[in-house]
Amino acid sequence: MKEYIFNHPKHRFTTREEDIATLNHFKQLLSVISNLSDIDAYVLNYKENTFEYITPGSRLLKCTPVKVPNALGFDYYKEIVHPKDFEFLIKINRTGFDFFYNLPITRRKNGYITYNFRIKNKNGKYQIVNHKLTPLQLTNEGAIVYSLCVLSEPTSDSPGNAYVKMNDTLKVYEFLPDKMKFVEVVTQKLSQRLYELLKFASQGKKAKEIAELMRISVNTVKFHKKTIFEKTGTKNIAEAIQWMNNQKLMMPSNDL
């Protein structure tokens, strides 16, 4: 992974005092946020291939003290990531950089990559996590200097499930490993009614509870779920909720 980052044609860096000031600002800001919430995050420095800051209690530190990732840099991934998933990280790293560097410089901080992979926990066993990465700072030429990474609960039960999501256009791109590229996903919008039902289901509410909240019958809830499955190409409510999260539905249509 480290060798590829150094060799990427867009990664050309110079050392500037303002870069250090910017990095310190990011670290201080993330430290404050971690004190106010349970965020699990860290800052990567692509210029030095190092972990610049890791929030206390991060999953990255469950099986090692913070000095270890600081000493190993990006090679630390080899120590904690499942071997099969490490190969995936190499692919997603390469393809992700290509995707962002094909964007205009002004848009490169407007998106993020999300995917699942397995890392070691404190017992030495692998657990699956979701990983989001977004550029924090660019050089004047557009090279990514720092990025923010956030770890959270996985979006599915298996590794992969990788997407790029652009916040400025709300477009979603799915990673196709066999083609080594991201392809735009055509989002099937749901009606306000169906979207509301799916949100209740994602909160763990059962059909009877949803019926009471929406003031409809249980049979109507079942009918609406069937419609959701047909529109989203899913087989059950768990898959539909995952689909909703992956596609980042924002603006449901007005028709039922």
Quickly list its features.
256 residues, alpha+beta, Beta-Lactamase, Arc Repressor Mutant, subunit A, eight-stranded antiparallel sheet, 9 helices, 8 strands, globular, disordered C terminus
Kindly provide the radius of gyration, computed on alpha-carbon positions and rounded to a whole number of angstroms.
20 Å
Beta-strand content estimate: 15-25%
Shape: globular
The CATH class of the largest domain is: Alpha Beta
Number of domains: 2
Unreliable runs, pLDDT <50, ≥5 residues?
249-256
What is the CATH superfamily of the largest domain? PAS domain
End-to-end separation:
47 Å
Strand numbers in spatial order across the main sheet: 2-1-5-4-3-6-7-8
Total strand segments: 8
Overall mean pLDDT stands at 83
How can the largest sheet be summarized? 8 strands, antiparallel
Outline:
The protein is of the alpha+beta class and 256 residues long.
Could you walk me through the main structural features you see in this protein, from its secondary elements to its overall organization?
An eight-stranded antiparallel β-sheet has the order 2-1-5-4-3-6-7-8, with helices on both faces. Helix 6 (192-202) packs across helix 9 and helix 7 (207-214) crosses helix 8 (218-232). Strand 4 (126-138) and strand 5 form a beta hairpin. The N and C termini lie far apart (47 Å). With 256 residues, the chain is α+β, with helices and mostly antiparallel strands. Helices cover 39% and strands 23% of the residues. It is globular, with a radius of gyration of 20 Å. GO terms for molecular function: DNA binding. This is Regulatory protein, luxR family.
